[in-house]
Amino acid sequence: MLSARLNLLAGSATLIYSDNLAPRNAEPAAPSIGISPDFSIFSAVSRITMIKREHIKRAVDAISRRNPDIGYSLDEMLAMGLIDVPSAEEERDGNNFFFLFDGEKVLVNRVLFFNEGIVPVEQGLLIKYGELVKKQELQAGGNLSSYRNAPREIRRAGLRTAVFHEIDYAVKRLRNNIETSASLDRKRDEGLIGFLEELKRNIAPLNVGANDPAVFYRGVVDEDMPAYFMPFPISAESLMQVADMNVEFFHVRFVLNCLIRGVEGNLLACVSEGTILGLVFLAVREQVFKKDLEIKYLATLRGKTWDVERPSFKPPKGVGTFLIAGVWLLWKNEMPKLKELVLDSELGARQFYDSLGFSARGLARYVLKEPKANLLKSILNMTHHCPELSNEAIHEIRKLIARQIKRLRKKFKGDSDASERRAVVTFILECLKPDARQEFVETACSNLIKYRTKIPESREILRFSVERASG
Predict the structure, then answer these.
(1) How much of the chain exceeds pLDDT 90, in percent?
(2) What are the backbone angles phi and psi of residue 247, rounded to the nearest 5°?
(3) What are phi and psi of 285, to 5 degrees?
(4) CA-CA to 213 of 20 to 30 Å: which in 48, 154, 207, 242?
């Protein structure tokens, strides 16, 4: 299993040294506004403060080129004012932009709009169009009670419309590559066409469990909710979930572009109870004398779900930390030749990355020198269920355990120090759980005994360890 993972990850990682995931021979895209290390996003914000009618028109035209029937209907609705932009007084909904579709707000993720231009607008139009068609179908059936009680069915019809549209677009690009001899691997592209067509015929729940061979690591989010770190499980259901996420960076076309370009192994997910809770996209960053593992994009699910069966559902806490833990373990366990784990952080996320142990390097670059206790706890929890842990990873984690215990020798001052101390103690208790690896238990116990006179909590921690072992 370990060798298979190594081949998969090394093979996929070496393919993605470019930021460009645009499809080969794609139709001309509308101009998009990118985020670069010089923080040009701020000038972008000053130029565009809301969705404008021209953005909607370009999105309708793009849809028309792929599906004239849908495009014609949307164009008619735009001309009649059924699709419109908000007034200047209500141009935003929180941090999101929005437009109006038959009187309903359609949210457009602001960061995604800056990065991808009209792509999220297209997606919103397709979802609402699919919902409208389903509503008309239910109304035509004459069963008004069915119509009133079918919000989930209506929503899924909209998501399905958007996903099928993107699948058809991906298939069209693949066929065009084959016909124009632009395909780099004709046999692979032909196989992808069959795979994508099959997705449309098979919409099944996303079932991921501990014994799923695709799972890299198993851990928990929200303290005790089982979660799985794995390559993105491409299916119609998973793509529908992506369409419904409203998160930065990730959308259905991005996922399908990864598949077309052969870098789907770089896209990883946190999955729990059949729901994708977060996504992370990795790349190898080459420099003159070294190669680093880079977190290109990371986003987690937030806000209420559309599922009427769980109307008050709130995404569990700790998904971002879980994803970083999975990336760290993947790096140390299977790609140890890569020198550092790095990322470019926008201003709003810096506090989160600081809390995990990332250190600033320049204006926007962050590097993970040494994970802090909260991140270490999530990493260690994953190792409880990981029989294939490399000697390098075991050695690295043992060093980190010893360093954290040494930190308890000094006196912590203030609320922030007290909070950090509690996090270290919680991490050490994780090391001593019955299902922890013996190497980590021994490292924790030996260092606690060594420094027992200088660590007030050492006796209580060791007593806890004995009780858990005997229980």
Answers:
(1) 55
(2) -120, 165
(3) -100, 115
(4) 242
Q: How far is CA 61 from the centre of its chain?
A: 29
pLDDT in tens, 78-123: 999 999 998 776 655 556 788 999 988 898 988 889 889 999 999 9
The first and second tokens of residue 324, run together, are 């970083």
Q: Name every residue whose Cβ is closer than 8 Å to that of residue 51 and which is 6 or more positions away in sequence.
A: 85, 86, 91, 97, 98, 99, 108, 113, 121
CB 379 within 8 Å of CB 397: yes
Q: Are 295 and 280 in contact (CB under 8 A)?
A: yes
Distance, CA of 203 to CA of 217 (rounded, Å): 26
Residue that is written with structure tokens 């991140």 in the block: 375
For 459, phi then psi, to 5°, come to -65, -45
Radius of gyration of the chain (CA): 25
| Domains detected in the chain | 1-21+207-384 (3.40.630.30), 31-203 (no CATH), 390-470 (no CATH)
Bridge partners (DSSP) listed for residue 104: 101
Alpha helices in 180-247 (DSSP H): 186-201, 236-243
What lies within 8 Å, CB to CB, of 130 at 6+ separation is 157, 158, 159, 160, 161, 162
Torsion sign, CA atoms 162, 167, 170, 172: negative
- Asked if 457 contacts 447 with a C-beta cutoff of 8 angstroms, the reply is no
Q: How far apart are the C-alpha atoms of 383 and 436, rounded to whole Å?
A: 7
Pairing of strands 291-300, 341-344: parallel
pTM of the entire structure? 0.87
C-alpha pair distances (Å), 171 with each of 93, 122, 182, 200, 311: 35, 18, 14, 12, 35
